[in-house]
Design goal:
alpha/beta, 13 helices
Length: about 325
């Protein structure tokens, strides 16, 4: 699921419209206002080693500036559950590899174009890695000979929700959806639909596919009626949330019953092959069913479902749920 999710995000930011919103809304650099987005080009990242190519989600855009110069932006989409403390070293290697690829294609190159390294982080934990490579080097000797390399970080979980609400563009809405609990997403879908009504069909298709992915439902192979498909998203969201709750319930119940039967058989064998087996299985199923309810409640609670809904779904007491 993670790889699919990463590819979905990579597809989204392969659209110049979303790149423009990302830079203008979340990157505080003066050159952002000088970019000629109509002439922006997506660059092949084949220079990255095969090992990293299988594990990274990355994009390189070639951005012409209004004064006639060119700037490249390297975007690393980082959704790992743990923060890579050596991120600045990784990015430094990537940029050196990129410059090597430029030099290979243009042997007479004397000056390299600037590259802006941007990490878009969407993990759960706080970003704790140093932004500067020099922080990874011991402070012995002369500091002037240490590479002065720094990357720019956009951590979705560090952006205040009020800021995301006030920006009111497509990227901020996507980021906002990432910070909400599943049952709160319905209120954001209407905002997303109203924004997308102004966009082009291909981008609408990408957003629709991404929505299917985060809702755990496979997008159609070919979304033909993109706008019509999008208007169905609010209902789809509500249906998927209910389906998601039911799947968690059924999965937990099935696991609990299987465990209960196994325990019951074991107890039955220990007590005697007939009556003991029957009693053991019955007790095991009861214990398994209760364990299933507890496991279901634990998963729903982790997803942010309100305690009242968990009580209604599982039949457990408030004290049992609060103790989880």
């Amino acid at each position: 699921m993670k790889d699919t999710y990463d590819r979905g995000y990579k597809s989204l930011f392969s659209h110049v419209e979303l790149l423009k919103e990302l830079l203008e809304s979340f990157v505080s650099e003066p050159w952002v206002q000088d970019v000629d987005y109509h002439s922006a080009e997506l660059v092949n990242t084949s220079f990255i080693s095969p090992h990293y190519r299988k594990t990274e989600s990355d994009l390189i855009w070639k951005l012409p500036l209004q004064q006639g110069t060119v700037l490249y932006i390297y975007i690393l989409l980082e959704f790992q559950s743990t923060v890579d403390y050596l991120m600045s070293f990784r990015l430094l290697r990537y940029i050196v590899d990129f410059y090597s690829s430029l030099l290979k294609s243009s042997p007479d190159l004397k000056r390299f174009p600037p590259v802006f390294p941007l990490v878009l982080y969407n993990g759960e934990g706080q970003w704790t890695a140093p932004l500067s490579f020099s922080e990874l080097v011991e402070k012995a000797g002369s500091r002037r000979y240490i590479p002065a390399f720094t990357y720019y970080k956009v951590a979705v979980n560090e952006i205040p929700r009020e800021e995301l609400v006030n920006i009111k563009n497509l990227v901020s809405t996507l980021f906002l959806m990432e910070t909400l609990n599943p049952e709160d997403l319905a209120s954001t879908i209407g905002r997303l639909v109203s924004i997308l009504e102004k966009e082009q069909g291909e981008l609408i298709k990408e957003i629709t596919r991404w929505l299917y992915q985060i809702l755990g439902n496979r997008a159609p192979e070919l979304v033909t009626e993109a706008t019509a498909q999008l208007t169905e998203v609010p209902g789809m969201l509500e249906a998927n949330i209910e389906r998601w709750k039911e799947e968690i319930y059924q999965q937990g119940l099935q696991q609990g019953l299987e465990q209960g039967v196994k325990r019951g058989v074991k107890k039955g064998v220990q007590r005697g092959w007939q009556q003991g087996l029957q009693q053991g299985i019955h007790q095991g199923i009861q214990q398994g069913a209760r364990q299933a309810m507890l496991e279901t409640a634990r998963k729903l609670k982790a997803r942010g479902v309100a305690n009242e809904e968990i009580i209604d779904i599982t039949g457990l007491s408030r004290a049992e749920i609060e103790a989880l």
